[in-house]
Amino acid sequence: MRAFLLQGETVIAQVAAAARAGQPVPEDSVSLLAPIANPGKLIAVAGGYYEHEGAERLRSDALPLLFAKRTDDIKGPGDPITIWRISPGVIDEIEVAIVIGKEGKHIPREQAMHHVFGYTICNDVSGRELAVPPPGRRDKEMDAFIDWLNGKWLDGFAILGPAIVTADEAGDLGDVRIVSRISGEVRVDGSTKNVNIPWDELIAFTSQLMTLRPGDIITTGMPHGLGEEIMLKPGDTVEGEIERLGVLRNPAVAEA
Q1: pTM
Q2: What is the mean pLDDT of each run of 10 residues along the chain (256 residues)?
Q3: Could you please report the per-residue DSSP string of 139-156?
Q4: Residue 203 class from Cβ within 10 Å (0-12 exposed, 13-18 middle, 19+ buried)?
Q5: How many whole angstroms separate alpha carbon 238 and alpha carbon 137?
Q6: CA-to-CA distance for 160 and 123, rounded, in angstroms?
Q7: CA–CA distance from 114 to each of 21, 70, 189, 217 (Å)?
Q8: Which run of H or E residues covers position 17?
């Protein structure tokens, strides 16, 4: 997919036209993989949504809180979420993922959305705490943050799918529903209207830090849940549904 996007707008348009004219393949006859298996960058944002209706938004001059996810172990629809022994408290985080289609550096905010090829769903799987007993622990102020960050990087903790919906097909995603279910129980039910950081601003700021290239992905955060976080357990099925983008399903399993 990265190689395809690098061919540029003309080739993409030709392939899209051919696809529309061709015979579709029944989805139940294939196994879907991650739509981009090796993004050059997968950048995520913390605090992408304000807490609840009426809550105070970030100040207009507040910088987005960015961090990187691994790109060498991207999973797709149906792949297992492993609950690793080092981090038994695992949650799902269902997010709109922006797929970059056009290279840019120092992108003006008013041009930012022209660099978007499309959207997919990202499950930013997260380990909430590392199970490292003393004396392996230090009593340092940053340990809680480092635990949180390390919990983003375990094997298989970046899942993409079920497909890329191109920007023209997706339309305006300014108020679409995001739902997370664990074995049928709704954990999150929110809307993109509550984003803290407008996506054009997010793209523009990210491009100040790094050159964005076709196939790069920026995830946009998840609305807050309906109460306490629900930790996954072996046997659970995680469903992340985003209006117009589909449903991403993955089972949870214990580390062998």
Answers
A1: 0.93
A2: 92 89 88 95 90 56 87 97 95 97 97 98 93 71 84 97 96 96 94 92 96 97 83 97 98 96
A3: --TTHHHHHHHHTT-STT
A4: buried
A5: 32
A6: 7
A7: 26, 26, 29, 15
A8: helix 9-21
Return the SS3 of 57.
coil
Contact 194, 50 (CB under 8 A): yes
The CATH code for residues 2-254 is: 3.90.850.10
Residue 46 tokens read as 């913390």
Q: What was the pLDDT predicted at 134?
A: 66
Q: Report d(CA 156, CA 255) in Å as an integer.
A: 12
Name the 3-class secondary structure at 98.
strand
Three-state secondary-structure class, residue 5: helix
Q: How far is CA 200 from CA 95, 112, 168, 196, 217, in A?
A: 16, 5, 16, 12, 14
pLDDT at 116: 97
* pLDDT value of residue 225: 75
pLDDT of residue 112: 98
